[in-house]
């Protein structure tokens, strides 16, 4: 039996780093799609297209660019996580009620002030639920990292498969499941608090 | 002073504003009114450049607003929209302080403003400042909407049907508050409505628009006296003098505070009550509350012996009318009959009220001029 703690920690770090990058890029893309309406279709189409690539193929392509190791799996997860965040940011921004946008403009807010003081705060609950979806997805996809030489809980699972050891497989899989459930639970709770005043 | 010079606006082929020219003087309460789609909102939004004209110019105090930075222009003009548009992510205090903060007022300056404004509308700071808009009633929200527009003391305030969605009582209350504020703070207010009653109540000048043009621009009194055309006349509806008579019914013109006594009451007791009510006649009712007749103080003095029951003195000379009669028919009757009043009966012959000359005059006056005249 191997010590799981380092694998769990590394798995978490990979997922969180990827989500962090994805949040930044995703929100920026969502804002661009909102501000420049003609870019909305291409941006959404791109993020959707990325998701349709099978994970194995995507990782193989990225491996050519980034080589073996954690960088490649982080890049892959970042791309996968993009869609829910971009889509929810864009949807959240366009669904801020017209009256509130009108009021913000009428009060004399500049475009940036409108975005940061009114539109993003109101869109944030939806953005956050996009982030939640991304994190939960990434936790399970990150297991694939072992195929391109990355760390995380993929390794014990892979070892288990090779040695046909079910207990070994489960010892890697169960922590992934627990983390996914835990994140889902915690982030859903935060989500509910966020939507409290957004009426 | 706001000046529109030959302002036009179209969307595609649809002409929304057609060569509009007018002037609004400083400190005036101007109400834009007209049928839906006539261009009121468009006109209003041009003043703070939320919409820009295709041609023509708009000046505020002699400065062409197209030469001004739109963001700065808007900060110097208050704006209240129909849907209220409070920012749900901000507290009441933060909402009110939006423009002062945009103008970089320090906290020591905007805090007292918020407090003062909340007091102005009787919403104590401690109780309300830290609530979110979703925790307020519709009327309170709209109050905050108005305060938000006033916070940076703009000389001009634009209001687009601010009270349209409110119940009549709250609306009345807010109308009075706004009028009071306008007078006190000497604001120029441009106010959009499609409710003539509201326009008559608030306006110094009414601008009546139709199909992107000004049909008439006049004081409320002038507009009532000389409506420019049929559309204006129709809008004035029941507020008009002459013209069609307003649809008033007896129940609209009666007084309901009346002295009713049972048949069996002793005359002395009855006189006592009439004294207390300061009336000189009473309505006598049967046991089942239906109308029996009237008795005047005179009747009692003439034939009343102490200890007699009031029922024995009833005269049935006083005319009775149904509460659902047209007021106009009753009007003539009241003027020609020797009686000073008519008894108004419900369908089941119980007494609903009295039409007196005073109650009639009051009701007609109110129908003509809107508010109660004191
Ligand atoms: N962005 C737009 N695109 C096309 N047409 C528009 C636009 N905004 C307004 N209109 C049209 O311009 C006309 C005037 O609109 P406006 O909002 O000024 O009317 P209004 O007098 O305020 O009416 P209401 O009493 O219904 O609010 C309407 O016929 C409307 O359909
Ligand atoms: Mg309108």
What does this structure look like?
- The complex is a heterodimer of chains A (199) and B (374).
- By secondary structure, chain A is an all-alpha fold.
- Chain A is 81% helix and 0% strand.
- In chain A, helix 1 (5-35) packs antiparallel against helix 2 and helix 7 packs antiparallel against helix 8.
- The two termini of chain B are 33 Å apart.
- Chain B contains 16 helices and 16 strands.
- Chain B is elongated, with a radius of gyration of 28 Å.
- A 6-stranded mixed sheet of chain B has the order 6-7-8-3-9-10, sandwiched between helices.
- Chain B has 2 domains: 2-239, P-loop containing nucleotide triphosphate hydrolases (Rossmann fold, 3-Layer(aba) Sandwich), CATH 3.40.50; 250-369, CBS-domain (Roll).
- Chain B has 374 residues and is α/β, with parallel strands linked by helices.
- Chain B has helices at residues 40-47, 70-75, 92-96, 98-102, 107-120, 125-128, 138-150, 168-185, 196-202, 220-225, 230-236, 250-253, 267-277, 297-303, 327-336, 357-369; strands at 2-11, 14-24, 29-33, 55-60, 63-64, 77-80, 156-160, 188-193, 205-210, 213-218, 260-262, 281-285, 291-296, 320-322, 341-345, 351-356.
- Chains A and B meet through helix 5 and helix 6 of A and helix 2 and helix 4 of B.
- The structure holds adenosine-5'-triphosphate and magnesium ion.
- Magnesium ion binds at residues 40-41 of chain B.
Briefly say what this structure is.
The complex is a heterodimer of chains A (199) and B (374). With 199 residues, chain A is mainly α. Chain A has helices at 5-35, 37-52, 55-66, 70-94, 98-106, 111-141, 154-162, 166-194.
